[in-house]
């Protein structure tokens, strides 16, 4: 049936559109409050542990929330991070609610510039990975407002396959019932 064949590309396009929508949903930007929910930007939080529960993608943001009388935020190089030195910093913030955009893939380093704080562990290394990259084995973290990308992707993929199959079936039925539309 010629009409059915003509509709196959339409079904394929519908399925493709659903896949595109799912990819965009999976890539939706997230904002993470550093240290939350158990801590913030403070002297107690284990940031190496905290980042393990997250996967950061380009477009995400991190927010440093703290009292500006007690702390600040300094973005530094890897060397500055290792040495706890803000001397050659990349940028510095001290509003108490500093939002930093993670625009590109790469590693970002932040520390508190107040004397002794970085040495006490108030430093964080943030690895920003390409969208679609799966998180590491430790990444199944608790209490993130955003669902883990791998989980949402798996759920989304299953839903898309079902939706695409349903769309294709509906299109075929439409041809049988109304051959001349
Ligand atoms: C950042 O570096 C500049 C020099 O480039 C320096 O003047 C400034 O004090 C540094 N900021 C902090 C918070 O250390
Ligand atoms: Cu501090």
TrEMBL record:
One of its GO terms (molecular function) is electron transfer activity. The keyword Signal applies. Residues 30-130 form the Phytocyanin domain. The chain crosses the membrane at residues 151-171. It comes from the Eukaryota. Keywords: Glycoprotein, Membrane, Metal-binding, Signal, Transmembrane, Transmembrane helix. Pfam families: Cu_bind_like (PF02298). PROSITE patterns: PHYTOCYANIN. Residues 1-21 form the signal peptide. GO terms for cellular component: plasma membrane. The keyword Cell inner membrane does not apply. This is Phytocyanin domain-containing protein. It comes from Panicum hallii var. hallii. The lineage of its organism: Eukaryota, Viridiplantae, Streptophyta, Embryophyta, Tracheophyta.
């Amino acid at each position: 049936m010629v009409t059915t064949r003509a509709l196959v590309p339409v079904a394929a396009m519908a399925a493709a559109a659903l896949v595109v929508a799912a990819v965009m949903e999976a890539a939706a930007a997230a904002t993470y409050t550093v240290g939350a929910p158990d801590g913030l930007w403070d002297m107690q939080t284990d940031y190496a542990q905290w980042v393990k529960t997250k996967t950061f993608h380009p477009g995400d943001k991190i927010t440093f929330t703290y009292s500006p009388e007690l702390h600040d935020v300094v973005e530094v190089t890897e060397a500055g991070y290792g040495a706890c030195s803000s001397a050659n910093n990349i940028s510095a913030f001290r509003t108490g609610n500093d939002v930093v955009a993670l625009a590109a893939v790469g590693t970002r380093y932040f520390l508190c510039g107040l004397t002794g704080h970085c040495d006490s562990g108030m430093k964080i290394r943030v690895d920003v990975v390409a969208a679609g990259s799966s998180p590491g084995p430790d990444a199944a973290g608790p209490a993130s407002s955003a669902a883990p990308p791998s989980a949402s992707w798996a759920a989304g993929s299953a839903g898309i396959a079902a939706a695409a199959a349903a769309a294709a079936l509906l299109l075929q039925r439409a041809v049988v019932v109304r051959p001349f539309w």
